[in-house]
Amino acid sequence: MQLDSAQLTALASILRLGSFDAAAAALGVTPSAISQRVKALEDRVGTTLVLRGQPCTGTPTGQRLAKHAEDVALLEAQALGVSGNTSPPRLRLAVPADVLATWLIPALAQIPDMLFDLVIDDQDTSADWLRRGEVSAAVTGQARAAPGCDVRPLGALRYHPTASPAYMKKWFARGVTTETLSQAPMLTFNRKDQLQGRWLMQKTGQRLTPPSHHLPSSHGFVTAAREGLGWGMNPAPLVAEDMEKDRLVSLDDALPLDVPLYWQVARIMAPALAPLTAAIRATAREALVQGAR
Fold first, then answer.
1. For range 154-162, the mean pLDDT
2. Of 58, 107, 207, 256, which residue is 20 to 30 A from 187 by alpha carbon distance?
């Protein structure tokens, strides 16, 4: 099925900017023209693509078509070169929040001729976005390549089980044991977050379910541990200074948790994304633990 590029561009702009008016302004046409293009595209594919609202969102088909439009723009830019008068191509990729908070941004900054649309998800599930065709690349914790993708190991992000000295005195005065760990309040990023559970299993050999705060912020996680709200698995780069100055201490110095990370790229997009892949791999070599246990 041959799809009209102007219609696809209109769809992608609506979903990126959130409204027909904003898309019209960005493309230099009237809102009516944008509406007509989307209606024609919906008629062509035989299904609704945009859910009207504040903001407008895409149906699953609409999201896939919008990503297709952006992928085509990126491939064309790579083939033809991007002029100074042309908006840079856009790449949608899925990354874990802790990766974004620790080492990814310097890698992205090395690619000035690309715009990034980041989807934040857990390292255990970020590859699901690739499987659904909703992103073109992902930093993931899964070594097995998603269908149609290439995968490269990056190294491991090291986590420390950390808490404030006052928290340690209150909850672990009798030691960090199975009993005390089952009672001490824990920090959890969200319901997908398995890091604390992994460490508890590594430490005790049991599946413990301590009381838990849900706090979906990498930097907020560190602050919460520092303020004594709970203990949690924090990335080493984010807590190095706090640990050095004894604002945070480890529940077990001998038992960090190394989480392997991988860069997965849709194979069809790999040539266009080669400079980004090189930047991410080089940055990861410096920021992550290599040859982790």
1. 98
2. 107
